[in-house]
């Protein structure tokens, strides 16, 4: 599953670390060496949820603490070995993740973060109330190894390392799979991900379950190292903050971030505590805080990304000369003459029946009915606020209609979740582009392919096809951050195409493009239509549209004012009036 | 292994160099310890974070103790060797305390004993490390759990929490009876949910209230910090108990509660108020409440500057500007003398010999801890450890019980 090339660095790192650990005889340094992987794993568990989905959790201590208490109490009350208890703790953490995730994923952004903050604090009080203010692990003098109690502190470090290596590899596998792609897509734009056929809730629940399980397992191990468990030491604010600190310092959304953060920060905090703190007690906190602030200011996304960007820049400037001209040359899509030979058949693939939606008193869409025929290009136009985007949102499931039906191939799909509608064969693009800037074009497009692809290879294949269809094959491996607006628009188009839809909803795909650029995009859309795609497109710029579409649907104030062939619609007085006002309607008539 | 570790050469090498350097220093320390010109003892207390203040106060006690011992000729059994204090900050979390303890045993291999760590959670974590390193630790923390783990290297000088309530309540009842002429019948209990309060309350509710014929009429628990004491005190006012047990562990909580008691007209002994921790008698209290508000309030504590400590108290005042001597100062001061005693008995500057000396010690009445002797039972609890009752009188908390330590007569506030 994982190529050797990506397995090698964590393996080498772990071996090197183990080597250093075995060379250390001082028990205090050994303890610090044990704590580094502990906090790295905790940071990785946080990263798995928050780093990849962008849903910041301030409450990962909830899982950590559940694991720690499960491991401690299981030994005290049931005399179970921690070798068994840590897996049990992981299970409990997973369940807790599911239970916490299910209601909390209804919230977004800051609200999610704040709600997550509440869980560990609430659980902390429960444990205090239960009388578990101070719990110590019993010493097992007769069977220490069966109870994970080693006289040799190296073994704790090695166990911690094993857990860290396992978590790193797991994270890497996820990063490369559909799972990781889905999470990244959610991070960029949850709505777009949903529209690309990703069942966002299901993936988020999987992420928090796994994340909770890892956090709980490492919490259990931590209890084993610390030997004393108090609510504050495992459920406290500082614990949740530790996960954020190591991950954000090292780099969010990468497997190396939390590891780098932990390797630097945990020993640094301890050294400061031991050296500076002995002279001026308390100064360690000040220096530590300042160090973090400085790094965050200089490298806002964490050290890993900063270093990677610097390294890329250096290597890029070397290869620049040979790279550029080629890219520029192949980048131009040859503009094929618009052909009218494409024949829209009479078969109805999408039918809208008296669709309405109001927001309070505002009727954003009222009583809209129309049909989309197979292989036609329908242009939906209307002035600002006419309800065009709202109509699209109703079609692809972002909004539930107050009234009316959306029939896809004769089946009523109104009110379904977006990813379900996407599976039914409707793809869409967005007015505001949200590309994954650090990823290559191909990787950006793969996200859209999973809805149809059964395997990873098939998804890659679909994505490559889609990139070829929009004419970006030559630049497919460049990162999205370096692209022009036109290329980004085409990439968005490719992402929608990669899901093999039968119907494409394009929301202002030509917006922000220059004259020549718009023509290139128009040519691509026309080619898609010739290849059998049915397209509905929203647009402001009439000029390009008149040449592109077969038929217009004109909206104003949420209602259809007219429908018909381009030449008829553009002369319609009601249309001119809607766009330009009554006065101009009079002019046009003359 | 050495081949693979090259991948991480830069940081790995520097760290290893640092470590070997540190190890060399450690070895040098061992070599020096063979002819002890000075004997190192540890003080591991919070000196950063929210528990800094008690840690600092403990440090004062330790410094005074060391100074006095050395001035009087050091450890005579070891040719007048001087004691040297090694201070280690155990921070404000359990993890930091554990790390600090590990640092202490790894970096200071020639320590013979230590004392700490104020909060019982910290002492729990610290002693998990010292037990394995076989370093004897004296503690003024009084959680029962500390000496319930079967550890061999912990010595608890204070009466445990449950013992304190066992001793404290009957004494208090006697005091009340003597002073006011009648026994209290009803009691209200307001407490926070920290480990010490919970342990104390458990003993009170399960056994002592019934034993003393007290009826619990109000019981309220809060989680620190207390945001508003009004509902708590309102309940007390309507229940009119003969006795109020008010058990905060943070000065801010104590202040809020006492001010509210005063505001509701229950202060100045309208309802006799008793606490179970030193919080309510800390010098910090006077920064936020007036002496009138606290007048007459009593607290049952494990130790306090008392009769016979006058010179010490005066020295503390002059040297550190501390207005009176709390448990933290006197107990830590006493710990230094206890270590000296053990060293004299052991005749060797070696941690295991010191531990053995502490275990077998029987040095008669204790001078710096209330009640009992300088002798430990098999759990490591000081035999006969007693309690002290302290009462706020004219802006100073003074010892009023036991009579041999009392600095003043107790007064039992009479109901008007």
UniProtKB/TrEMBL annotation, chain B:
PROSITE patterns the UniProt entry points to: TAT
Organism: Bradyrhizobium betae
GO BP field: amino acid transport
Stretches of the chain forming a coiled coil according to its record: none
Residue span, Leucine-binding protein domain: 38-395
Family: Belongs to the leucine-binding protein family.
Family annotation (CDD domains): PBP1_ABC_ligand_binding-like (cd06340)
Pfam families reported for this sequence: Peripla_BP_6
Protein's name in the database: Branched-chain amino acid ABC transporter substrate-binding protein
Keywords, alphabetical: Amino-acid transport, Signal, Transport
Record InterPro entries: BCAA_transport, Leu-bd, Leu_Ile_Val-bd, Peripla_BP_I, TAT_signal
